[in-house]
What does this fold into?
Amino acid sequence: MNPDEVFTFSLVLCDNEVDRDFERFDTAALQELACLFTGKTGLFNHSMDAKDQTARIYKARVITYSERLNSLGEAYACLSAAAYMPKTAKNADLMAEIDAGIKKEVSVGCAVGRLYCSVCGADRKKGNCSHTKGKTYDGKLCHTVLGEPLDAYEWSFVAVPAQRAAGVVKKFKNKKEDYTLEDILKFLETGEEELTLNRDEKQALTEKIKELEALAGEGRAYREELTAEAVRLGLIAMPQIGSDSLSAICSRLPLGELKELKQAFYQNAQKSVPLKPQLKPEPQKEPAANTDYQI
Ligand SMILES: [Zn+2]
It folds into this structure.
């Protein structure tokens, strides 16, 4: 198979976080699972019918994040895998979904030698201790710890995974390929899984943020100027309101409405006193709009 006939992607199979079933793998188990899952075939929706829609794991390793803790206060660790599947017409939709981050949930099937209580360490295979998983004892969530994996049967894309963080890790390719700043921003808006950026992408994002900050600064200055002018005119047009109330009203308005309000105040103010405007007045609109702002 040529490299360009193969579609590769990375995914998180499982981690050391407590899952929805109040179970978790201990970190040693993750290491052993890395060996057991290498070479294993993945299914989609646990279905064997679509035999051509399978992917194979060619590499798996445990990644430990020393700066990120799981809910137990331990360093977060996950089993990250790289998988491939043939690029075929039948797989086209699936590959597009993986690329778009849609087919992102993964569940794993494996056998473990040890199931023990997180509170007292009692062997769950031999019967229950006094602790119930899902309940909290002395501020600690009781769960079942899975250790000593014996075999890994399968991994599968499913709609709702038991392991919260498991999923296809969105792959951001190098600059030479498709991912632009726009793609990254779109992903930040819609993606739920973790995002890893390379150096170029980080730089592009940082530059964009700086650019937006500069624009925001200009916008704020313009808004302050506009507010001050609207309050000044408002005090002439409607002296009974008072500057604090006027400022409060102005601060709540979107920019477009603030401009309209200032214009309305200007027209009303001109009726009471002929104004020599500090700012060149905008073209006058029909005075009918004034009634909108009468309080
Ligand atoms: Zn117990």
Q: What stands out?
A: The first strand starts at residue 6 and ends at 15. The chain is about 35% helix and 25% strand. Helices lie at 27-37, 92-99, 181-190, 199-237, 243-252, 255-272. The pocket of zinc ion is lined by residues 117, 119-120, 122, 129, 131 (CB under 6 Å).
